[in-house]
């Protein structure tokens, strides 16, 4: 499966970063941004497979219809009922505490549409579970997918979110105009140099 995913990513001109994977990936809340398309999940799952780790992905329960449901579960998908979303951070934190290894993947935007403010759930899950947040990305500007160094939440939500968001400055999702940080100065200009 890994070779197949590598081949498909090459056709899509997406380069997965298989080198700079922090050790904290073994037990963390793994962010996934920008999230502007259903294709993000498919391409992101391929990158994760090529990078050599498995993630537990939060997906709205409505997506788990047949025949897609079994495929999503096979890829690590966990259905979330958005009607009970307020109780979910405690459930998710307990789930993480019980695992030896888990990269608990969440899209901080919470939607594929433009959202000027990220959802807070991922932050409080990490804080409650006592695990770091690892910023994962799929950047269509540089056509790269990977993970960045782990971030340990301090409990100061506003300051921590501002720090985390800097990792995503200037990145593009598949659909331009639907990521709230794409108009910021690009955080990784050296990636564009390598792309030329």
List the helices and strands and how they pair.
Blueprint: H1 2-11, E1 15-16, E2 27-33, H2 38-51, E3 55-60, H3 68-74, E4 77-80, H4 88-98, E5 102-106, H5 121-129, E6 133-139, E7 144-147, H6 157-166, H7 189-195
Helix pairs in contact: 1-2, 4-5
Description:
The protein has helices at residues 2-11, 38-51, 68-74, 88-98, 121-129, 157-166, 189-195; strands at residues 15-16, 27-33, 55-60, 77-80, 102-106, 133-139, 144-147. It is 35% helix and 18% strand. It is globular. With 196 residues, it is an alpha/beta fold. The chain has a single domain (27-195), classed as Rossmann fold, CATH 3.40.50.
Tell me the overall shape.
Answer: globular
The total domain count is 1
Side-by-side strand order of the widest sheet: 1-7-6-2-5-3-4
Strand content: 15-25%
What is the averaged pLDDT score? Answer: 88
Class by SSE composition? alpha/beta
Point out poorly predicted stretches: none
CATH topology group: Rossmann fold
Mind describing the biggest β-sheet?
Answer: 7 strands, mixed
End-to-end Cα distance: 29 Å
H/E series: HEEHEHEHEHEEHH
Query: Radius of gyration in whole Å, from Cα?
Result: 16 Å
CATH architecture: 3-Layer(aba) Sandwich
State the helix count: 7
Secondary structure tally: strands: 7
Q: For this structure, what is the CATH class?
A: Alpha Beta
């Amino acid at each position: 499966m890994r070779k197949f995913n590598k081949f498909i990513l090459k056709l899509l001109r997406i380069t997965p970063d298989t080198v700079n994977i922090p050790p904290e990936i073994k037990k963390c809340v793994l962010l996934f941004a920008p999230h502007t398309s259903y294709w993000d999940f498919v391409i992101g799952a391929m990158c994760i497979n090529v990078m050599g780790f498995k993630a537990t992905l939060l997906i709205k329960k409505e997506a788990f219809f047949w025949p897609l449901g079994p495929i999503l579960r096979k890829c690590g998908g966990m259905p979330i009922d958005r009607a009970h979303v307020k109780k979910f951070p405690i459930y998710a934190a307990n789930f993480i505490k019980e695992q030896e290894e888990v990269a608990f993947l969440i899209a901080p935007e919470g939607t594929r549409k433009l959202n000027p403010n990220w959802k807070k759930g991922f932050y409080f899950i990490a804080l409650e579970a006592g695990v770091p947040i690892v910023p994962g990305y799929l950047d269509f500007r540089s056509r790269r997918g990977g993970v960045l160094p782990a971030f340990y939440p301090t409990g100061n939500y506003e300051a921590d979110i501002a720090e985390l968001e800097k990792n995503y400055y200037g990145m593009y999702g598949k659909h331009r105009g639907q990521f709230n940080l794409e108009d910021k100065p690009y955080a990784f200009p050296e990636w564009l140099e390598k792309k030329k």
